[in-house]
Design a protein that fits this description.
Number of strands: 17
Number of domains: 3
Strand content: 15-25%
Structural class: alpha+beta
Helix content: 10-25%
CATH class of the largest domain: Mainly Beta
Bound molecules: succinic acid, cobalt (II) ion
Radius of gyration: 25 Å
CATH topology of the largest domain: Jelly Rolls
CATH superfamily of the largest domain: Cupin
Shape: globular
Length: about 400
């Protein structure tokens, strides 16, 4: 369990409780030596290798692109792309590297002071000296961890939604960006910068091995919440439930939508959505939706719970499939809802807690009631798989 009141090097000596109350969603924090012994688990060439693979989300940002300034192109790339690039003025960004490189996924375990379902992914960027993605604002919290080389970070306050953006380009780059006094630092390996949503920032590479890991969080927009929940609850509302006006009085003007009509529709709407249990059911599903649906591949044949028990007893282990997301909610003393990859299973609360916390599952899980039934369902859906079958990062030659 997270120790809320123990100071952490990762948080610059703040306790998780202090970090959350002073900085989380509020103000930036520069942390020198957040991971003092960090050695980047991948090289720039490994990143380029990932960017050449089918199904991996990769972007190349070129400040002076072949067609326009700040041009963005999408992977998969090939050797020819990298060999035509100039010596500066570009960045390579690869999304969800934690799904492909287990050592990058392991880094996320240190961020257990925020619920795991808030984590989105680790984006890794590489830029030669002078390269950047321009000054911009993100809508989500991010920890910018310098994994190798140096990057200069400049912060420019909170410009708000109305800030002018450069027109006619692929990126949302701020037209006006000025560095605030004292808000500029060069980060070295192991240093980290936390930014809450809405802070203008600009990160420029200062070395030919500059790699930055962006540990990003997910937070659905109000639009996504309203439309997502409306779709979910809408399917459960019968067609016979309709706008009703048994209290109708003769209208003063035949075409007028009067206050009573609006009050009736408001009451129907509020009554339909004010359902905390369904809201939890929907939210758990929504927050565990995998980032890439095709990464969770259902098993070809059904797993017998008894066979699964026998295999765990023999010493085999299961692990969460890369990209799989778990969360849980207690219903009562004996039952919880385990949310996995957008689905829900009822199970014992201690089993739900264990499965949502552990990344590697061994025979210890069999002590929980009905664990083999739940595990078999998760193996069938592709959310759990044998821990010994994990893919290695594909090798890469000299690309950059
Ligand atoms: C980068 O790593 O180049 C950009 C990360 C960010 O600004 O969010
Ligand atoms: Co950013």
């Amino acid at each position: 369990m997270t120790s809320a009141n123990t100071p952490r090097t990762l948080l610059g000596g703040l306790t998780p409780a202090q970090f959350l109350s002073q900085h989380w969603q509020k103000s930036p924090l520069l942390i020198r030596g957040a991971l003092p012994d960090l050695v980047s688990p991948l090289e720039p060439d490994d990143l380029a290798g990932l960017a050449c693979e089918e199904g991996i989300e990769a972007r190349l940002v070129e400040e002076h692109g072949p067609e326009k300034p700040w041009q963005v192109s999408h992977g998969p790339f090939d050797d020819a792309t990298f060999s035509r690039l100039p010596s500066s003025g570009w960045s390579l960004l690869v999304q969800a590297v934690d799904h492909y490189v287990p050592e990058v996924a392991e880094l996320l375990e240190a961020f257990d002071f925020v619920p795991s379902w808030r984590l989105d992914d680790v984006m890794v960027s590489y830029a030669p000296p002078g390269g950047s993605v321009g000054a911009h604002v993100d809508q989500y919290d991010v920890f910018l961890l310098q994994a190798s080389g140096k990057r200069r970070w400049q912060l420019g306050g909170s410009p708000g939604d109305q800030a002018q953006l450069i027109a006619g380009i692929d990126l949302r780059i701020l037209e006006d960006f000025s560095v605030e006094a004292g808000q500029e630092w060069v980060l070295e390996p192991g240093d980290m910068l936390y930014l809450p949503p809405g802070v203008a920032h600009h990160g420029i590479s200062e070395s030919d091995d500059c790699m930055t890991f962006s540990i990003g969080f997910r937070a659905p927009s109000a639009d996504e919440i309203v439309t997502g929940f409306a779709d979910y609850i809408g399917e459960q509302l019968g067609d016979d439930r309709r706008y009703g006006d048994a209290d109708l009085q003769p209208p003063l003007h035949v075409g007028e939508l009067d206050d009573q009509a609006i009050a009736r529709v408001r009451e129907l709407l509020l009554d339909a959505i004010d359902r905390p249990e369904q809201m939890a059911q929907w939210f758990g599903r929504a927050m565990t939706q995998p980032k890439y649906l095709d990464q969770v591949v259902p098993a070809e044949s059904a797993t017998a719970p008894s066979a699964l028990r026998a295999s765990l007893e023999r010493g085999d282990r299961l692990s969460r499939s890369p990209g799989s997301r778990f969360a849980w909610r207690r219903q009562d003393e004996s039952q919880a809802i385990l949310f996995v990859d957008g689905d829900a299973i009822l199970c014992d609360p201690e089993l739900a807690r264990y499965l949502a916390a552990e990344t590697c599952i061994d025979a210890g899980v069999l002590d929980y009631p009905e664990s083999e039934r739940v595990l078999a369902a998760l193996v069938d859906s592709g959310s759990l798989s044998s821990a010994d079958e994990e893919d290695e990062v594909s090798g890469s030659g000299e690309i950059l």
